[in-house]
Write a structure and sequence with these properties.
- The chain is mainly alpha-helical and 152 residues long.
- It has a single domain, classed as Leucine-rich Repeat Variant, CATH 1.25.10.
- It has eight helices and two strands, in the order ββαααααααα.
- The protein has a two-stranded antiparallel sheet.
- It is globular.
- It starts with 7 loop residues before the first strand and ends with a helix.
């Protein structure tokens, strides 16, 4: 019997509906691919992938936690695009986003706070309240706005 591998089976389709190729990816490969594709500007492709397989959303903190500004902006745009229709599915990313509130880079901490405010998951409220005491004013402002967004 073969060993079971945990990961993703990725199918890429041509516009006419035919399968171009299929491949199996483990979690690290999928995360790296998402970060790479987001950095190249393939936001629409990633949106489509997330709509087909919501488990991919658990990589959102990985995308938001990189230094590449294009990837972080794309990750934020991804949430903006999905949040109205798929707010519950986005909650899978909340624990990782809360961890990003402690990241060494204040821009990443602020981005995490903003995205948590968009998702409006109340389990993030305590962590956002703690971020109101952050040393960096941009993080404090983002946490305050996120808490205000969560109350709306």
């Amino acid at each position: 019997m073969g060993r079971y591998r945990k990961g993703f089976s990725l199918l890429l389709h041509h516009k006419n509906g035919s399968i171009l190729f299929t491949t199996f990816m483990n979690n690290d490969e999928m995360r790296d691919m998402l970060i790479d594709y987001m950095g190249r500007g393939f936001l629409d492709n990633i949106i489509d992938l997330c709509k087909q397989d919501f488990s991919v959303l658990r990589f959102l903190p990985d995308m938001l936690g990189v230094e590449n500004i294009r990837v972080r902006l794309g990750a934020t745009a991804l949430v903006e695009e999905l949040v109205l229709q798929f707010r519950n599915e986005l909650r899978v990313a909340v624990p990782g986003l809360i961890k990003l509130l402690k990241h060494e880079n204040p821009t990443i901490r602020g981005d995490a706070a903003s995205v948590l405010g968009m998702i409006k998951d109340q389990t993030a409220a305590d962590a956002l309240h703690m971020s109101l005491q952050d040393d960096h004013p941009v993080v404090r402002e983002a946490a305050l706005e996120a808490l205000a967004d969560m109350s709306r």
